[in-house]
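Known limitations

Structure tokens in this collection are predictions and should be treated as such. Users comparing against experimental data should check residue numbering before alignment. To illustrate the layout, the record for MFS transporter is reproduced below. The input appears on top and the generated tokens appear beneath it.
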Amino acid sequence: MPYTSVRRAARETVSGLPREFWWLWTSTLVNRLGAFVATFMALYLTLERGYSASYAGLVASLHGLGGVISSLGAGVMTDRLGRRPTLLIAQSSTAVSVALLGFMHDPVSIAGVAFLVGMASNASRPAVQAMMADIVKPEDRVRAFSLNYWAINMGFAVSSTAAGFIAEVSYLAGFLIEAGMTMLCAVVVFVKLPESRPEQVHKEAGEPEVGLRTVLRDGRFMSVVGLSFLVALIFQQGFVGLPVAMGAAGFTPADYGLVIAVNGVLIVVLQLPVTRFIQDRDPRRLLVVSSLLAGYGFGLTAFAGSVGVFALTICVWTLAEIVNAPTQTSIVVRLSPAQGRGRYQGMYTMSWSVAALVAPLMSGVVIDRYGAEWLWGLCAVVGTVAGLGYGLLMRKLPPDEDATSAGRPEVPASAPVSERAA
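Generated tokens:
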């Protein structure tokens, strides 16, 4: 492709988005650039502190449990306090708890603070996604969410590489650097980002307040959350089931590191051009296709016997991830009322947090009892179920109106009372 065409495509991908979005995007990038602790936490506990692998797994589970609990709480805060205060509280708390974790030595203290880190670090996600939906026009949301996802993976690719070098010098330095960069994100939010929460214009009209009960009664949305959990369960296997299966097959940690790096590289290289291709296409088809690609991409792992074949399977499910992430997030926004975006995003975020808890148990039990081939076959089945589910649920999808002025995307009169009442 000629240089001028590449330049024009890049300009069209990033143009037309508000300045506030780019400050939020910058905050996300800085946050992920400093995400060292998640990368080397297991090595820190087992090599530096001398704890067992079981204890390291317990700490990881407590970290995930903190994320599950905070997802809903942060969603409520996002709607009640506002997007900006929630981000400030979450990022400041993350910075303090991460720094504190670096000074903990007692196993109980480490586990407790890791739980707090999980709560604080996940609390910003509903606020970020709700604010992004507030400030970006409906027709640009897929592109905006894709750019944000690209920033997350770009930052992670850099931080995961840097984490190894920092750990060789000082693990404590990694904790303190992450704390400092997270606090820098809070400064960016405080200085550059205004509050974007829509005014409660519908309250005077006698419309019911959007609460967690409203979210739970929204049948279509909760079905999407359930399908999101299934898809997340598949993607998590790339980081919990795949390394275990490769190790059992005689491959080294370096082999796994090499093949999983393909995931990050492909996302960084392909996220923007793929977004240009999908942004105006039917989201229902995109979700169906991405679910099937994810399931059968992992299913093909059952036939992998070399590093090269493992890398090829990762190419398949990474393409699914590139398509699924921005499309699914934009669907969540479309199904959410403006006054309840925080709660809806919190529920959606929780589906991924719960998947992060369940996936290690799922992969361990299946691999130990039946073998890795059964795990990959199960992924193919789960992907098929998710694809069929999206195909059925996304029929007559509500139009993507600007919810900040309409309150809620229009729902047909024949829809269940819970959807129209929301």
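For this record: The mean pLDDT is 81. The CA atoms of residues 63 and 114 lie 5 Å apart. Please report discrepancies through the issue tracker.
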